[in-house]
Amino acid sequence: MSTLETARDTLASLGRDFHARGWVPATAGNLSARLDNGQVAMTRSGRHKGHLGKEDFMRLDTLGQPLDEGTPSAEAGLHLALYRRWPEIGCVLHTHSPRATVISRRRGKHITLSGYELLKAFDGIDTHEAEVALPIFDNDQDIPRLGARVNAWLDRNPAPPGYLIRGHGLYTWGRDAIAAERHAEALEFLFECELLANR
Ligand SMILES: CSCCC(=O)C(=O)COP(=O)(O)O
Ligand SMILES: [Zn+2]
C-alpha cells in the first residue's frame, strides 16, 4: 500500500518498463495500486502507458465511485473486483503482450504450467513440481459481463496468479507493485517457454 504520489511514481515507472518490453503497445493495458486509505489509483482511459505523468492517474473507491474528475480505465471494473475479493493485494497490472495474446488464442479454457523452476516466483510455491492453472476467458466488450464471468470462476477455484482474456491480454496482481511485476515477468517467461515448446 502507498500514498498517491508513491503509487503514481511506481506505476509510471512500470508503464515505461512494460512499454519498452512491448507489453503495453499503443495505449493498451492499465495499471492500478491500492492506497493507504483504501482508495485505488488507476490509469485514466486511453493514456500511453510508456509516458505516464501524474495527470494520467485518477482515484476511485473499490466500488467504482470516481474520486477525481475524468474517465478511468475502461477496464476499471476488472481491477476493482480483484481488490474487493482479496484485501491483501495492493497492485493489479493488465498487459497486452504478444505472448499473452497469442497463447490465449491457441489454448482452450485454461493453460496449465507445470515442471518449471520459475513457478517458484509465485507466492506459496516452493517447488517445480507444482502445477498452476490460469483461466482463459473469451473477450467481451461488455466489461461488467466479462467481470461477472471472471468472478464466477474465481468463486469456484483456487486463486491463480493471473488470468488471460482471449486475444486481448493478461491480468495479474500481487501484494504490492514489486510482487505484481514479478508475477507479470514470470508469466511472460512461462508463456514464452510454452510457445517455444509447442511451435
Ligand atoms: C488500445 S487497447 C484497447 C483497450 C484495452 O484493452 C486496454 O487495455 C486499455 O484500455 P484503457 O481504457 O485502460 O486505456
Ligand atoms: Zn486491455
Automatic annotation (TrEMBL):
Q: Which residues bind Zn(2+)?
A: 94, 96
**Gene Ontology biological process terms, A to Z:** L-methionine salvage from methylthioadenosine; monosaccharide metabolic process
The cofactor binding remark recorded in the entry reads: Binds 1 zinc ion per subunit.
What are the alphabetically sorted keywords of the record? Amino-acid biosynthesis, Lyase, Metal-binding, Methionine biosynthesis, Zinc
- The Enzyme Commission number assigned here is 4.2.1.109
According to its UniProt entry, the function of this protein is described as:
Catalyzes the dehydration of methylthioribulose-1-phosphate (MTRu-1-P) into 2,3-diketo-5-methylthiopentyl-1-phosphate (DK-MTP-1-P).
> What is the similarity comment for this entry?
Belongs to the aldolase class II family. MtnB subfamily.
Q: Write the protein's name.
A: Methylthioribulose-1-phosphate dehydratase
Naturally occurring in which organism (per UniProt): Acidihalobacter yilgarnensis
Q: Which gene encodes it?
A: mtnB
